[in-house]
Amino acid sequence: xxxxxxxxxxxxxEGKWVALKNGRVIAANATPDGLYRDLHARQIQGATILRVxxxxxxxxxxxx
Length: 64
Fold this sequence. Notes:
- The protein is α+β, with helices and mostly antiparallel strands and 64 residues long.
- The chain contains two helices and three strands.
- The protein has a three-stranded antiparallel beta sheet, covered by helices on one side.
- The longest helix has 10 residues, at 32-41.
- It is globular, with a radius of gyration of 13 Å.
- The mean pLDDT is 91.
């Protein structure tokens, strides 16, 4: 069985902060603080956290 592409996993979460673990979304929140509180309350460690860009978010390339 092949893993689900990340774009498919994150579809519908545009503009949110998400925590991923083992290729699955384990939590999502509108703010990074809210996501952190959720993960802390559930005692989840070792998750990758990222913000899923929205359709109209500016795209940044490089460091400046």
